[in-house]
């Protein structure tokens, strides 16, 4: 055996504890990224991670190069096959996580670990680009703990290591101590008003409502439980059956789908006239949709800032909603919308594709004959048909053929809001009543702790509007005729037991209540942008805090925190000397009688002087002096029992005034 | 590069003692306090701050507030680790130093006793190119063994020691100088080969009982008795430590080592030869006495006697 040169500490293989912690960090990063990685890649990386961990326990050493290089090539290839390139958020993240796991294969010395941990911290932040919800952020922040613990474990010369979970505690304490500074920096770091380079594609936004409607295509939406928007009202919220949020108004029917008029060809017209009897003001926080439409309660009076109102009182933002958006709206609850119908709208509201749905046309003609010119009676007849005709509300209806409305009305008899509103509108048009389809959200959960209405994607809804002479456009919700709970209680109640197990009642209730925390997080943390930051210091008299002000404040408060930290670092608890303390007490008592200890006077001289001055207590003072001298000079450390006796004696010492 | 830096440092310390806070040797105990602890980021710390910057710009660019919060948390934790690094040295106390024995050219063992009122981790001491890491549990003092290279016999002042720590995250390095005012005595180097001492003729008659391999009796322990002679089993039954007394008919005569006999040699050669004789006598467990100018050591044997002789030899002018 040849003698080895002693290697420098940085080149020595790391111990098992550090490697375990590093593997734990990597596993956490992989777990956080797993939801948006291709499943086969996630599993393959997890297997590599587990194998390497096991292999390092058996034998310390790097994985040979002939194994590492093909794995690297396979990873790059896999990412390119999956995503087409290696740039962009999703492929970049997949590549980063893959490289991180492969880095583990060659990690043997402290330097490798430090590189790996730095990269893991970066990968943790990348995970937040995919989901910056409260839970995700907290989990990612907890991911810092094993990372910091790994760095700790690298330092040589430590006290015996505690168990693995307890090894994380000091890191927790460190991050907890750093939290105030972190929050302050978060508040004061100047935000960019525009990105330095291309902002990422916001494909994490849910699409929400589409601008066309085909009966049956809401199903995905109706099972999506994520919040679509949150609404808080000035004053009392409207009754549940008035919580209709209008997004799109659809006129064109091609036999299968409903469409909006193409905005490129429709001439822009002023909003339809509106007579208002009562109105309500509210504030909506909309989740990103990547679309321009802003849902508004019922019929909005005017558009919020940076949005315009269309002819049908749809509200469109100037730019697609890529970030959470807050806006204030004012809507009419009792109103007359477009009391005088112009000829163009009447023609549009009555048009139907030719040669479709003959049985529906026949039924409508039959009603028209029976009720004469009484439009309201025909509406009632249609609602009565839905209510009594054996219709069923289901999220999984049978497919429909070419004459979709005929099939639905006379054969399948099952469907959800899209089917009912579509069929109802076609019936009305066939009977000669102008009608249109409106989509949006209906219902929502009233969170009484936060006083806001939580509207989920599953609250998406479609209903109809018919134009009646003298009343204008009147909202008719044919789904309500079939399933009144849909309107009064919401989508989940209407769906009954068709939903997955995790949406049962109490769990849903819990989720609804928990939503207040999400709301607070979304508004307070995620939505804290450059604009809100500028208004941050208004309570302190700074109206428009610009970047320079924020920078100065950040510096000042950073210095303040460093000062606090230094005070802690410099804090030295002087070990208290109990014997000295007891003597001080005795000195105070004697000083009250005018026998003060002189600066250069030793305890023996001083106490003898006191004994002479107080002849009545000479014995007592002499005994105190003896025990003090013994305690002080006979031992290195005063023994406990005699020390306590001395302290008691000093406490019980009273100076008796001698009347001379 | 490294040499150049070290030379620059030495030059700077000589020229600018105030700036470089060059510390003169000082008496033990030495307690580290804030005015003599310095902190700089390590290479890893610099790299890590670049990473933090990248994370910050990324989070700001994508206006990802959760990412920004994470970056702030990581940055604040790093900053807090600087204070922890400082605190791991602050209040550290070097109580005393015990030096071993070594001949010139051999490494000399130093034992440094550090104590502290609170536990400390990962404190390191640099001496020459070697680094020792140790921890303190806050109760007992930590004994740190260092080896000091020696060159020539006589009193050798202790070099300046760098005590440092990059605890807890390796991002910052806190360090301080320890320059204790203490010297260690280095024994002379023995010559490799030479004649044996001239034995007096009558020495052979002085055969008497001497420490040997055969167990004669048990007696009380005296300071200086070799540990391997302690009769542990027997001692367990008594209050005092007992030592096995060995006896052996002395086979070697007593040596009288005398400076004056080595007339033809210069001083250092004399010392080297005497040192070799002393070593041989010690190995052969002989009885010997030593005469040096101004110092006469009567006959004796054993490690204490040996050390006394060597010390006297080492201190010769």
TrEMBL record, chain A:
The chain crosses the membrane at residues 37-54, 66-84, 136-155, 167-189, 550-571. The keyword rRNA processing does not apply. Keywords: Membrane, Transmembrane, Transmembrane helix. InterPro entries: Bact_TGase-like (IPR052901), Papain-like_cys_pep_sf (IPR038765), TgpA-like_C (IPR025403), TgpA_N (IPR021878), Transglutaminase-like (IPR002931). The keyword Nucleotidyltransferase does not apply. Coiled coil: none annotated. Residues 409-480 form the Transglutaminase-like domain. This is Transglutaminase. It comes from Rhodanobacter thiooxydans. The lineage of its organism: Bacteria, Pseudomonadati, Pseudomonadota, Gammaproteobacteria, Lysobacterales.
Automatic annotation (TrEMBL), chain B:
The chain crosses the membrane at residues 37-60, 66-86. Keywords: Membrane, Transmembrane, Transmembrane helix. It comes from the Bacteria. This is Uncharacterized protein. It comes from Rhodanobacter thiooxydans.
